[in-house]
Amino acid sequence: MRKNIQTWIVAALLLVSFPSCKKYLDVMPDNVATIDYAFRNRNEAENYLFTCYATMQRNLFYTWNDPAFTMGGEIIHPILQEGGGGDFGFRALRSGKNVMSVEFDLFNGSNGGVKLYQAIRRCNIFLDNVDKPIDLTPTEKARWTAEAKFLKAYYNYWLVRQYGPVPLIRKNLPLNASVEDVRVKREHVDTVFNYIVQLLDEAVPGLPPVITSAASESGRITKAAALSLKAEALTWQASPLFNGNPDYISFRTKEGQTLFPEKFDPGKWTRAAAACKEAVEAAHDAGIKLYDFVPPANLSNISDSTMKLLAFQGTVSHLFNDEVIWGANPVHADFQYYCVPKMTPESQANDIIFGSLCAPLAIAELFYTENGVPINEDKTWDYANRNTPRASDDAHKYYIHNGYQTAGLNLHREMRFYASLGFDGSNWFGNGTLDDENQQYIQGKMKQVSGAAMAIKTNATGYWIKKLVSYQSEFQRQSLPVAFAVPRIRLAAMYLLYAEALNEAGNQAEALVWINKVRERAGLKTVQESWSTYSSQPGKFNTKDGLRQIIHQERRIELAFESQVGWDMRRWKEMKDYFSSPIQGWSVYEESVAGYYRRRTIFMPVYSTKEYLWPISDNDLTVNPNLVQTPLW
Question: Are 240 and 545 contacting, i.e. CB atoms less than 8 angstroms apart?
Answer without folding.
Answer: no
